[in-house]
Amino acid sequence: MRNATLLVGLLLLAGCAGRQSVLDPAGEDARDLFDLFRVMVIAALLLWGAVALLFIYVTRINVSAMPRKLAETLIVGGGIVFPVLLLGALLAYSLPMMGAQRQEGDGLVVRITAEQWWWRVEYLPADGGTPVIAANELRLPVGARSELILNAHNVIHSFWVPALGGKTDMIPGRETRMSLKPERTGVFRGQCAEFCGASHALMAFETVAMAPQDFDAWLAEEARDAAAPGDPLAQAGAEVFAREGCGACHAIRGTEAIGRVGPDLTHVGARKSLGAGILPMERGALMRWIGHAEGLKPEVKMPSFDYLEEDDLRALAAYLEGLT
Ligand code: CUA
């Protein structure tokens, strides 16, 4: 019993801080939701306390001897008037919040498409030009409200960065919109919040909230073509990439790889994580991912290149790691 209490306590505390917590808000919308949560919990405790006190009171008196007037007051006041006033106040407080996350943005518009099981991320230029394409990582400027256009092609997914705001469903054939306004810099984890198949739990991403000038510099860098391989190992990796036909599914801008099936890899080495938030971005993890993707993410479209020689895998990983 004591162990169970301890376990429940630890589980509750585990959600209190960190980069994927609704209880540690880092954006305007998440803060509104956190305030709403606090008010709701306090009000629920008040209601529960009042009912518990009434219950204790009636178990300690002789109910049949209670004056009729007092009984009526308790029933009408405690059973009807108090709950109606409290629940009415909560409703009035929470209703105006419903549209808050659909506010218009300040300028930046990002289109996010849910795939099975990763995220296609496109930064749309204000002038209607070519989008800057990335994947599995969302970057946003702090202090500005950015608009997200959400959609999906296969099944229903749900976009959720708990530290920044509420969740919004991504529905095939329909565009949903939401906006987010990060209030401090940091890296916050996002997670698909709607069961979408075998690897739903492995459909995560990082959201990097940056100072506005850093964001502008990053976006300009992200819009560039891929860097040429820097050393002989990476050069060999680029040859393996071409020989194995990786470019049929993946695009690397500035090369012959123009596939659209899998994530764009133009600046893959600059991302914080790999495989949609499931592995760190480093050479060993890249080798494991390329060699055993199907084992790491059940039913993923990426085949496991487990027949590749260790040297080829290492060269390929070095090439991708250098695409920053
Ligand atoms: Cu996508 Cu769950």
From TrEMBL:
SUPFAM superfamilies linked to this entry: Cupredoxins, Cytochrome c
Domain Cytochrome oxidase subunit II copper A binding: 105-221
Domain annotation Cytochrome c: ranges: 232-324
Catalytically driven reaction(s): 4 Fe(II)-[cytochrome c] + O2 + 8 H(+)(in) = 4 Fe(III)-[cytochrome c] + 2 H2O + 4 H(+)(out)
Pfam family, one: COX2
Keyword hit for Iron: yes
Keyword Iron attributed: yes
Transmembrane segments: 36-58, 70-93
Cellular localisation: Membrane
Keyword set, alphabetical order: Copper, Electron transport, Heme, Iron, Membrane, Metal-binding, Transmembrane, Transmembrane helix, Transport
Top-level taxonomic group: Bacteria
InterPro entries registered for this protein in UniProt: CcO_II, CcO_II-like_C, Copper_CuA, Cupredoxin, CuRO_CcO_Caa3_II, Cyt_c-like_dom, Cyt_c-like_dom_sf
PANTHER family: CYTOCHROME C OXIDASE SUBUNIT 2, CYTOCHROME C OXIDASE, SUBUNIT II
Similarity-based family: Belongs to the cytochrome c oxidase subunit 2 family.
Protein name: C-type cytochrome
Species this protein is from: Sulfitobacter aestuarii
